[in-house]
Amino acid sequence: MSSSVVCQHCGTPVPASRKDGFCCAGCVYVHNLLHQQGLDHFYDLKGGLSLPPVSPQALRERDYEWLADLARLEAATLPTSPGEVRTAPVELRLAIQGMSCVGCVWLIERIFVRHAGGLRVNVDLLQGEIRLIYAPAMFDAVAFARDLQAFGYLLGPPHDGEETRQVTGLERRVGLCGAFAMNAMAFSLPAYFGMPAQFAFASWFDMIAAVSATLAMFVGGSYFMEKAWHSLRIGALHIDTPIALGILAAYLGSLGGWIAGVPGLKYFDFVAIFIFLMLTGRWAQQAAVERNRRKLMRDTSIPDRVTLLDETRSRPLSALQPGMRFSIKAGQSVPVACKLLNPQATVSLEWINGESESMQRTSGQLLPSGALNIGTRSLEAEALESWKDSTLRKLLEARKPGEFRDLRLERLLRVYLAVVVLLGIGSAGWWLWQGAGMATALQIMISIFVVSCPCALGVAVPLAEDLAASRAERLGVFVRSLALWKRLMRVRCVVFDKTGTLTLENPVLENPEALASLDAKSLAMLRTLVTGNLHPVSRSLFDAVGPGQAMPGHEVLEEIGQGLSVTDAEGHSWTLGRGQGGDACFHRDGVMMAAFHFRDALRAESVEEVRRLQQRGLGVHILSGDRAAKVAHIAARLNLPPESWQAEMRPEDKAAWLIANQKDDTLYVGDGANDSLAFDAALCAGSPVTGRSFLEQKADFFFLGHSLGFVSGLLETARIHRRATRRVFAFSLTYNLVTVAAGMMGHLSPLAAAILMPLSSVATLSLVAWTFRRPRTAAEERLPEQAGLAPIPA
């Protein structure tokens, strides 16, 4: 059932199971912290805007050694005074996760100024980055990062990548072409309003318009020319092909008309404005996707470098060879298959086989590539393979979806282009045969090429993409691929991983009343024990206890296979481990304080969503690396027959099953490294945000929260997106038939083309907006339960 109560911190609906007015423990903690530190103005700036809830997992203890190394490296490049004191300011550019509004910018600035040595901070909300300028002798970058983390913001290494450079390049092109378009239009208008050709500055006006259009061609037109040429080279047709044809014809005709003194051929203002509008639409598409990609930082549990035992400096993973001995920090993944050198260790193989239980390993035993060190100390191991041969490296290889080829669209474009070219050339020949001059024939041919250029599509389709993405965000889904909507329309089968996908990432505490019986000191000591540990039980208890102040200066010790222990300032021993009476028991000086029971739980609405997908005629399957008994139990709860699930599958087995059983029509939803190869084999793929997986960076979309109720809503959004684009195509076809007919009869002047182009764009934009303006789907109405939304970890 829906709930009208919204979280006091983030504004998202409060799950029915919570009675405190907050959606999660993370929001409770940050709300109280803002109040205690007098930073309530954050809520005034936020207004009624909903924010991503603060996941408790984002407030766990994090390793900031990378930041300390980066700050040290930047400071080392600065000149020093005679006393070896570095006086010049340091500048650091960092990615930041968790920002969503101007209130976040204000809060980050307030946190920064209270750190000694901080000179200036620039927050880029759109790019998801901050730039710190500080005095290195006074400012502690790690302390600042931990302070930010307490409010739900995570710092990471600066963003980099080809997508970022493409979006930035498009921004520059759009800005320049906007200026060129204004120039071309301003110096073309006088001629439209009757400026005589004998006017003293008429030739200068023409020259400025020509130069502006030429610069727009070089800066912006080249973008579409390159895209069109690339598609032709690989034997495909892209929507940029007719765009490039129209731009090129209008520019060359205008250049010829200007040189020959034929006013009817001057389309300079059209060229510049058209390029600007098309670039704006393309930039809007890519920028929206890039913003979603920037919402998540790279998973820090997968190391970039390792430290060899006989060396002090770290080396890149590519340097790992068999026989090398290296260390693996707590919370990090084993990069290559290796032999354990420590007497004992606790690891998790959930990324490899989907089982969430911890595993104990002793000296000399194998640690598979991708195993996660969930103990409290670093491990030492001897490599048995090189990084090149590592399974983890293969799983980490980025998904390479390429550009989605819609063969039906290509066939339509092929016919469309052939008809346009034949009509243009044929009309020019007809007018020449009727005795019209070459200038008139060229004007008619160029006008046909110009008006048939799909300018309305170039503006309306990006709007459809943006409205569909906004609709998906209301479902807790963030789109990372422009081709997602077309792919979803081809989906006939949905395949789920089990652990962390159909079920929640962490086991659920069945008896929360055991926590309620503990006093404040006991809760603080329990929080101290579980804060830095990645064991599934510790993660669940951390979520249940909620973030807060751990007891400082106390070292948590781990006894492999038995549990965790810590001694407080008064000498009392606190332990968490196995024991009679519960799955985990909490003791003080050997006296049980609480016993905890856990169970694996399905994500909210899993049963209902599977039924809805089946009612849509889609096949539903489970592929899991977990044991058969566990998978069978989950399948039975979902009412899936035995032939609909597979168990004990390796990563290669999942990919092989998809290749053998799908017809390029499968949506795969998974969360672990063992799903990576299946991602590559599926038509499209999605991943929940867990805070420790890298698949969000490979997925076509990622989703937030504890519910699966978004899948049918996402498919419905794809259907609405297709309806909108089809209506735009139908309008464009009708518009082109009318305008091409007018051009063939010689009634389409450059002025008419310049007027019709923006009018047609406005019409298609209105058509798209009208198509998306409709009552919310049932999946969207179910958002409150879905808004166990523990979205993006901060």
Automatic annotation (TrEMBL):
Keywords tagged on the record: Cell membrane, Ion transport, Magnesium, Membrane, Metal-binding, Phosphoprotein, Translocase, Transmembrane, Transmembrane helix, Transport
Ranges that cross the membrane: 174-195, 201-225, 237-261, 267-284, 415-433, 439-464, 728-745, 751-772
Broad class of the protein's primary localization: membrane
Entries under Pfam families matching the protein: ATPase-cat_bd, E1-E2_ATPase, Hydrolase
Residues of the Putative metal-binding domain: 7-47
Localisation: Cell membrane
Matching SUPFAM superfamilies: Calcium ATPase, transduction domain A, Calcium ATPase, transmembrane domain M, HAD-like, HMA, heavy metal-associated domain
All copies of domain P-type ATPase A, residue ranges: 310-397
InterPro entries: ATPase-cat-bd, ATPase_P-typ_P_site, ATPase_P-typ_TM_dom_sf, ATPase_P-typ_transduc_dom_A_sf, ATPase_P-type_domA, HAD-like_sf, HAD_sf, HMA_dom
Membrane topology value: Multi-pass membrane protein
Entry superkingdom: Bacteria
Family to which this protein belongs: Belongs to the cation transport ATPase (P-type) (TC 3.A.3) family. Type IB subfamily.
Protein name: Heavy metal translocating P-type ATPase metal-binding domain-containing protein
